Amino acid sequence: MRKQITATLSLLLLLSTYLFAQTTAAEQDPKAKTILDEVSKITKAYKTITAEYELVSLNKEKKPINKEVGKIQVKGNKFKLEIPGNTIVCDGKTVWTHNKDAQEVTIKNFEPNNEEGLNPTNIFTMYEKGYKYKYDKEEKIGAATYHIIDLYPTIKPEKKKFHTIKLYVDKTKKQVHEIKMLMKDGGTQTYEIKSMTPNTELADAIFVFDTKSFKADQIVDERDGK
Predict the structure, then answer these.
(1) Residues pairing with 106 in the sheet
(2) Tens digits of residue pLDDT in 169-210
(3) CA–CA separation, 110 and 76 (whole Å)
(4) How far apart are CA 127 and CA 143, in angstroms?
(5) Cβ proximity of 87 and 99 under 8 Å
(6) Residue 196 near residue 170, CB atoms below 8 Å
(7) Beta pairing, strands 188-198 & 176-183
(8) Which domains does the chain have, with CATH numbers?
(9) 215, exposed or middle or buried, with CB in 10 Å at 0-12, 13-18, 19+?
(10) Between β-strands 86-90 and 219-221, what pairing exists: parallel, antiparallel or unpaired?
């Protein structure tokens, strides 16, 4: 279960954390930048996003080692992520992680600029911060045509478990459809966005986790001052 959470958070950290260094515009592929900026502009205009995804992990022999489905709801700096065995909720200040198998809730302060933290509120946007990117090709898959853009980490790349990310952008919808992480061990982690619905009405109460039904020994409060 821990591996499932780590795999999912690797996607969220990849797409959501605003890193402090930035590759200069002169080093970036202008065609890739134009596409990514357009995707970002459209996505940031959404008031809310509800999406479902599927993760498939393959080892270096290309044999499946993990498969999971998940759902995420985002409203401003608030989010709710549901993955097998776990629900993660954030109201913009506090993050609650409910481990359903252990019937335990961990509470932490939300740190949006912490690279080790969790911030999927910008999960579908991508900037040049922390990555160098290059346009690979245009490819037709099924009925849709995709721009494929390769990204390479520029901040502490030696500490990353992946060396390249292949981003599949729907040419017509201008939305991220698939993210494929090429791992240093020869494996892959592929996230396919099965559905994405913007601007649905999401009540703020969705992004607060109620701990009243849990006993004191089932709650681990790691917030500052607690």
Answers:
(1) 97, 220
(2) 999 999 889 989 899 999 999 989 999 899 999 999 999 999
(3) 14
(4) 28
(5) no
(6) no
(7) antiparallel
(8) 2-221 (2.50.20.10)
(9) exposed
(10) unpaired
- 140/176 Cα distance (integer angstroms): 15
CA distance 56 to 69: 9
Express each pLDDT in 8-24 by its tens digit: 544 544 444 322 233 44
At 101, is the secondary structure helix, strand, or coil?
A: coil
Instruction: State the chain's mean pLDDT as an integer.
Output: 82
Distances (CA, A) of 197 to 46, 47, 73, 194: 10, 11, 10, 10
The token pair that represents 209 in the structure block: 């986790």
Question: Hey, which bits of 30-175 come out as E strands?
Answer: 48-58, 64-75, 78-83, 86-90, 94-99, 104-109, 131-141, 144-153, 162-170
- CA 127 from centroid of its chain's CA atoms: 14
- What pLDDT, on the 0 to 100 scale, is given for residue 131? 81
In 3-state terms the chain splits into helix, strand, coil percentages (rounded to 5) of: 20, 45, 35
| Apex 191 CA angle, 29 and 121, nearest 5 | 75
Residue type, 204: D
Residue 152 CA neighbour count, 13 Å, CB half: 11
Q: What is the pLDDT of residues 51-73, one digit of tens each?
A: 898 989 999 999 999 898 989 89
Among 129, 92, 139, which Cα is nearest to 112's? 92
List C-alpha distances in Å: 54 to 37, 118, 184.
25, 19, 22
